[in-house]
Design a protein that fits this description.
Elements: E1 6-11, E2 38-39, H1 55-72, E3 84-89, H2 94-106, E4 112-113, E5 126-127, H3 132-143, E6 149-151, E7 168-170, H4 175-188, E8 193-199, H5 202-215, E9 220-227, H6 233-245, E10 250-254, H7 257-269, E11 276-279, H8 292-298, E12 302-306, H9 314-319, H10 328-338, E13 340-341, H11 343-346, H12 351-354, E14 358-359, H13 381-400, H14 422-429, E15 433-435, E16 441-443, E17 453-461, E18 467-476, E19 485-487, E20 514-518, E21 527-531, E22 536-538, E23 543-545, E24 550-552, E25 559-561, E26 563-565, H15 572-597, H16 602-606, H17 609-625, H18 635-669, H19 682-706, E27 710-714, E28 721-727, H20 731-754, H21 764-788, H22 792-823, H23 830-835, H24 839-842
Parallel strand pairs: 1-3, 5-6, 6-7, 8-9, 8-10, 10-11, 11-12, 13-14, 26-28
Antiparallel strand pairs: 2-4, 12-17, 15-16, 17-18, 18-19, 20-21, 22-23, 24-25, 27-28
Length: 843
């Protein structure tokens, strides 16, 4: 059985006289079909455009013919089915493309021919258009008739919207993936400051919008310009000025080759170099643009290119083409390639042209020409045309292979092969999935897009100044995340004096220890570097606060463990205070030994030896309590230091208070009729001391049982240090402890002061007054010094207060007595004390 699938390809491949352009239908009937010929009148088109020959476009048209003939000769696909096609030229103009599509849908054409092919074959699908803007308009119209359209070069992201373009398919990836590839390249080389230029059409505007969305996550747009569709010298100059004055070294361009010509000429004219161009697939492999004239400015361009493929037999097919004077398409192509004119066309030429053209013989050989048409070494768009034809053929093959009862349509029916409808082919086109002869998978995703695989090409500048394309990498969207891009860095040609990767940034990366500070009114990529504050570090972008136990080093690059500070025995201050405390304890014990040894002497007896012994023992513990403040704080030392201090001081002051009371009572007892001493004997004295001490013990017990002191790593007082200290737990408890000691000291001082003028033997009150004056002065000055002292010096102040007050008591009370006992023993007699009533006062 013979059947015709008439496909349509919209290509800019042919031109006739200036100002006139034709749309051509070719009906190819192979497999038992008669030869054909046709002529086209030049007046069939009402709208005239100026067109020029595009070798690549004509190559794509011939590639489609080659693929159809290849399929028709292949018995494994569509056996007994013959494919045909109709071929139109859109002259790169939207009205032409829409006219062609309308003609196909309506099934009518203005054409003169001397034969008929058994009635017009059904038009089931359209291959084309290469332009995104054209494809958008045509697809909207074709979707009304449910006719599939397979484009080989329209990349606009918008065409992936199946709600708006339900019948659109393409064998080229969407711009969304092209943008991703470009962004990955920019990110790979660390470029964060780039310029962006796009053509003023759907292809350029949708791409640049998507690019702006992608790059904002790591970079910034230095400038964004639009290339006008209609040449505008002022606008082109403005774009070039933006390029010149921008500090961005990298410029991304989304444009077709035709739209870019004027801009490239102006860039070359102004001799702008030192820019790294990133090319979209629309112009990255254009041999016209990659010329010697553009090499200095555009050499080293990195471009996204459609996957290159091999089509065996295509070159031979192209070289075997021959002119046919009955086929004006080939006639005009031949005349253009060989710059000649066939004899029967000379009469139709204008006078100026006929005077300069040579005659064509028809025996010219295409092998002698080296142009884009016969060059099959870099097949990209043509390879996509080949895949598009095969995709339609496989869809049709699946359609005719349907088994009745297992069909995809209503009641599980299959399509009627004799009455095929385009919408039936769409169902199978969505499911196309095969490996072509060259190992590439041909399929469409849910959006009708082809798998996103790109070649990364580089414009290499050769020794003679020409430019060659070299594949330096691949971008495969289906690869493992993070491995989509592969680049051979060493094979990339950098068109810079250094020959190395250029740097394109607005601001230099901040050094470690500094952070970015965005400049007002400028993109985030433009910033100043501000040093991090103390306690923060950075690696170049933001400052991060070190954790509680760490602090920044001097350069603010790493967090180091904070210095732990406490008054230790290894510290010179701690060692000195410890020695002084031990010295004070030893001196107290030494005095105690002296008093015990001379306890039977009048001076020891006169000063109440038992109270003196207890006072010296409590002073010893007072000195030793200072040692609890030195060294690393622990739970026990924190509690012990204040308890031991509080109780030892209370015992000291209680003894002094009782001694003062005893002095007063003794004086009163000398008065006639006074018997007060019997009410304040030894038992009462002991009871008083015990009572005062128990009160302090009760305060300590309540404090320790509710909110006891505990070791604390204080990180707030000094930022760069950890102050290892004892927290008092309860300020009230600590205040009560010292307050009680102060209360007893004030009473002792007051009583001693009142008794300071008592007679000779009992002038102990003068020494007690002096010792209490020292004690009170020390602890009063202790409070502000304690509050204002930082870190370990807080502890040192408290130790100093303990030692100073203890030494004050020791020296003020016991030094005069030791002086008499050791140096003036003659005064240590009862007689001497009675004779010289002022002896003690003197010393």
């Amino acid at each position: 059985m013979q059947y015709f699938l008439c496909s349509y390809i919209v290509l800019n491949f042919f031109a006739v006289d200036r100002g006139k352009c034709v749309c051509v239908r070719i009906c190819v009937c192979s497999k038992a079909c008669v030869p054909y010929f046709f002529l086209l009148p030049r007046n069939i088109i009402s709208v005239f455009f100026s067109c020029s020959l595009d070798y690549l476009g004509f190559q794509r048209a011939q590639t489609m013919i080659f693929a159809i003939e290849e399929i028709n000769m292949d018995q494994t696909i569509l056996p007994n089915i013959t494919l045909g096609y109709r071929l139109y030229d859109n002259c790169m103009k939207l009205p032409m493309a829409l006219r062609a599509a309308t003609t196909l849908i309506a099934g009518q054409e203005d054409i003169i021919t001397d034969f008929k092919c058994w009635g017009p074959p059904p038009v089931l699908a359209i291959v084309g258009d290469p332009g995104s803007t054209h494809s958008i308009a045509m697809s909207r119209m074709l979707s009304l008739f449910q006719m599939p359209m397979v484009s080989y070069y329209a990349t606009c992201l918008c065409l992936s919207d199946k709600k708006e373009y339900p019948t659109f398919f393409r064998t080229i990836p969407s711009d969304a993936f092209q943008v991703k590839a470009m962004v990955r390249i920019i990110q790979y080389f660390g470029w964060t400051w780039v310029g962006a230029i796009a053509s003023d059409d759907d292809y350029g505007q949708y791409a640049i919008k998507n690019f702006n969305e992608e790059i904002k996550y790591f970079g910034c747009i230095a400038f964004s310009e639009t290339i006008p569709k209609v040449y505008d010298k002022l606008k082109i100059t403005q774009i070039v000025d933006s390029i010149t004055h921008s500090t961005a070294k990298v410029i991304v361009v989304f444009s077709s080759r035709g739209d870019l010509v004027a801009l490239m000429k102006e860039v070359v004219r102004q001799n702008i170099t030192g820019k790294q161009w990133i090319a979209s697939e629309g112009w990255s492999t254009s041999t016209v643009l990659a010329s010697k004239e553009n090499a200095d400015s555009f050499g080293g361009t990195i471009g996204i290119a459609i996957r290159r493929g091999e089509i065996p037999g295509l070159k031979k097919f192209l070289l075997q083409l021959q002119p046919d004077q009955n086929n004006n398409i080939m006639t005009k192509f031949w005349e253009t390639v060989f710059e000649c004119t066939f004899q029967n066309n000379i009469s139709n030429m204008n006078l100026s042209t006929s005077g300069t053209s040579k005659a064509c013989t028809g025996s010219e050989d295409l092998k002698t020409k080296n142009n884009a048409f016969v060059d099959t070494s870099n097949l990209r768009a043509s390879y996509n045309v080949h895949k598009a034809v095969y995709a339609l053929a496989h869809a049709l093959h699946d359609l005719i292979s349907c088994k009745s009862g297992n069909g995809p349509f209503e009641n599980q029916t299959c399509a009627n092969i004799k009455k095929l409808e385009p919408w039936q082919l769409i169902h199978y086109l969505k499911k196309v999935n095969f490996i072509n002869h060259f190992g590439d998978r041909v399929t469409f995703d849910k959006n009708g897009d082809a798998p996103a695989i790109y070649d990364i090409i580089n414009w290499h500048k050769t020794g003679d100044g020409s430019v060659t394309f070299k594949t330096v990498g691949v971008f495969d969207e289906s690869a493992t995340a993070g491995k989509e891009l592969f680049l051979s860095d060493g094979e990339i040609f950098w068109n810079f004096p250094s020959g190395t990767v250029p740097e394109s940034i607005c601001s230099q990366s901040c050094y470690p220890g500094t952070r970015k500070a965005t400049r007002k009114g400028q993109p985030v990529c433009c910033f100043d570097c501000v040093p991090c504050t103390d306690g923060e570090i950075s690696f170049s972008i933001e400052c991060f606060q070190c954790t509680a136990d760490f602090w920044s080093n001097q350069n603010k690059t790493i967090c180091v463990l904070k210095e732990v500070e406490f008054l230790s025995y290894e510290d010179a201050m701690g060692m000195t205070l410890a020695v002084i405390a031990l010295l004070g304890a030893c001196m107290s014990l030494f005095v105690l030994v002296i008093f015990m040894q001379y306890r039977s002497t009048p001076i020891v007896k006169a000063n109440n030896s038992e109270l003196s012994f207890l006072l010296l023992i409590s002073l010893t513990f007072s000195f030793l309590s200072a040692l609890c403040f030195i060294g690393q704080p622990s739970h026990w030392t924190c509690m012990l230091r204040h308890v031991l201090l509080g109780i030892s001081l209370v015992v000291c002051i209680s003894c002094i208070l009782v001694k003062t009371i005893v002095v007063i009572m003794a004086f009163k007892a000398t008065l006639p009729g006074n018997n007060m001493m019997k009410w304040f004997g030894v038992a009462q004295q002991r009871g008083t001391i015990i009572c005062f001490t128990l009160i302090q013990a009760l305060i300590c017990t309540i404090w320790l049982s509710t909110t006891p002191p505990f070791p604390l790593r204080n990180t707030k007082y000094q930022n760069d240090k950890i102050i290892f200290e004892c927290s008092i737990g309860s300020l009230i408890g600590f205040g009560c402890l010292l307050g009680y000691v102060g209360f007893l000291a004030c009473i002792s001082f007051l009583l001693a002061f009142l008794a300071r003028h008592l007679p000779d033997t009992f002038n102990e009150a003068k020494f007690i007054t002096f010792s209490m004056l020292i004690f009170c002065a020390v602890w009063i000055t202790f409070i502000p010094a304690y509050i204002s002292s930082p870190g370990k010096y807080t502890v040192a102040v408290e130790i100093f207060a303990i030692l100073a007050s203890s030494f004050g008591l020791l020296f003020a009370i016991f030094a005069p007595k030791c002086y008499i006992i050791l140096l003036k023993p003659e005064l240590n007699t009862k007689k001497a004390m009675m004779v010289n009533k002022n002896a003690l006062s003197t010393y």
